[in-house]
Amino acid sequence: MSTSATSGVAGRYASALFELADNAKSLDQVAQDLTSFRKMANESHELSRLLASPVIGRDLQSKALLAVLDAADIKGLTRSFVGTVAANGRARELIAMATAFLAELASRRGETTASVTSAVPLSPQQLQQLSDSLRSVLGGAKVSIDARVEPEILGGLVVKVGSRLFDSSIRSKLQRLQLAMKGVA
User: Which UniProt keywords apply (predicted)?
Assistant: First the structure.
């Protein structure tokens, strides 16, 4: 795995899951499950709090996470992995682990992953148009989009591909305007 994906605890767990999924020929299923799980965590304040809480014991946290996975119909290797991670007291690292796993999968498939932040959820057509635009800018490489919603950016998009950052958010434009106005005064 690449160094960026394997750094720290999240990377080591992601590497182990990748190897298990590869051996079980279930990379696509695990990727789909982890994508669903990350989306649920991004959209649910309660799930995010459950993952981050140092107050909730490992046993209770593990049971709650497995119940969430059951409700989302996530089973098999992904369910076992999440249960093991929670039992080991590493639930707060689950999103980072999922991100590292998905980044490694994309890298091995020759895909580029773009992290896209918007103020409102993007429609499938908007995501496809963005993917096509990024593909042409990046020289034809297949682009998978990791979409997140952050209302704080007010509007526009923040797109990060590798070390490149394209920030067309209204929040950033207002900050630049504020700095320009301070310079004039």
Answer: ATP synthesis, Cell membrane, CF(1), Hydrogen ion transport, Ion transport, Membrane, Transport
Model confidence, pTM:
0.70
- Are 137 and 50 in contact by the 8 Å Cβ rule? The answer is no
Q: For 10-25, b where at least 16 C-beta lie within 10 A, e where not — what string?
A: bbebbbebbeebeeee
Same domain, 122 and 51: no
- What is the count of structural domains for the chain? 2
Tell me the per-residue pLDDT of 76-129, one tens digit each, with 9 for 90 and over. Answer: 999 999 999 999 999 999 999 998 999 889 888 888 888 899 999 999 999 999
First to last CA, the chain: 52
Between CA 119 and CA 152 the distance in angstroms is 7
Query: Do 130 and 117 form a contact (C-beta atoms < 8 A)?
Result: no
Amino acid at 154: L
Query: Do residues 55 and 89 touch, judged by C-beta distance below 8 A?
Result: no
CA distance 1 to 57: 32
Tokens found for residue 110: 């020759």
Half-sphere exposure at residue 44, Cβ-oriented, CA atoms within 13 angstroms: 15
